[in-house]
Amino acid sequence: MIESGTTVQADREYGGLWMRAGVRDVTPSISGPLAGFEARRGRSSTGRQDALEAALLIVGDPRSRVAWLTIDVIAVPSPLAMRLRDAVRTGLNEQSLPVVVAASHTHSAPLDWVGSIHPGHSGESDQFVVSELVDHVRALAASISMQSQVPVVAGWAERQAVGLGANRLDPQGPHDDRVGVLALRSVQNGALRAVLFDAATHPTVYGPDNLRWSADWPGVARRVMRAAAAEMNSAAGHIDPEPIFLFLQGATGDVSTRFTRRGNDAVEVARLGAIAAAAGIAAIAHDARPLSSRVRHIARVVDFERRVLPSREAAEREVSEAVSAREGTAGLSPIKPQVRLAQSRVEGALVQRALVDADPARVIACEMSVTAIGDAAWIHVPVELFSSIGERIRAGSPFPTTRVIGYADGYLGYLPDEPAFVQGTYEALSSLFPAEAADRLVREAWEMLEEIR
Prior knowledge:
Helix 1 (78-92) runs parallel beside helix 2 and helix 5 (312-327) packs antiparallel against helix 6. The longest helix is centred in the last third of the chain and has 22 residues, at 337-358. The protein has 2 domains: 2-298, no CATH class; 310-358. The protein is an alpha/beta fold. 33% of the residues lie in helices and 25% in strands. Strands 1, 2, 4, 5, 6, 7, 9, 10, 12 and 14 form a 10-stranded mixed sheet that branches. Strands 15-16-17-19 form a 4-stranded mixed sheet.
């Protein structure tokens, strides 16, 4: 475990921003099935490719504080998010602390942590493995509670990560290729102490054939950035602890490495992770825009109407049509985008059929939150929202910097845009939401951003 914040004693009269942070290896101690690809058919992990991490950052000012807990996991369904949030508060002994729990969405993490994350998906959680994860997070928080608050200054910067990902339905379609970086530096000596960075690309370089635990490309990006930042601190003569890096996944419902990856192995994971890291390092190295030491956080639950599902017969026809279309890709390489597109439509039709059988609740409770530091804001939603929806939120935000974060504080599946419903994509077929839900989500986001400004 790496921790930050044990060497600087905060001045009691200090009126600016402070932080505490740490990171812990939470890779399961036992084997089990991997989440993310139904094609794995329950096969168990054969070992660890790289560590799955949980990282915790607490940022505060004299009036307010907030925490981000980031975990390498496919998703954080509401019951798991609640347990992890309670673990953080118990470990810190701060029961009123706002805690955002965010998943990286790697498809090479334990299914046992989450079980079935969607009414159309299979899987059951394993309470031993879940408890082990919760214990790790509680221990991480407890260790951070022993730290002194580190007075810091905050800066914001963005750089493009060209070639990391692309719109997976249309390579010319919308996607946000920027890596956003919140850098926290010591007031005492300017050393980099923590970085919260986000990007929007599915961590699915490793496909269903991979059976080893892995954070996928975000894990590589973190390690490369962490090593570079430590070397920068050392070269500047700082003896501060190694900086803490946390990753947030963006609006990536229709963004992945489908059109950018050259393979599905560790070499390609390293290459794409390095692309993300290079953008993050460039953002750190260039002069960041300073953020004022003002922390705010609000959260609310918004109810959505579930979409009207087709009849069982219509759902069966959709499956048959998708299977027939897939047969036209026979003989092509499995990594060809058109093969994955055809297969994903089959998977979407199967999920839709399972949804029809499950008949989920007609009202969907969606937890949304906004955190702001100075004039930068992060809006967190428990869905895989499309890039175009994220762009609409940013375009109408009153903040000069707005980052849209998915897979946070719950998991409610895909929230596609209207063209996806017209095309009948995997994301639309498997979604719980109707096409008009995107407009509602955007309006709610704007209202929350205006309220917190």
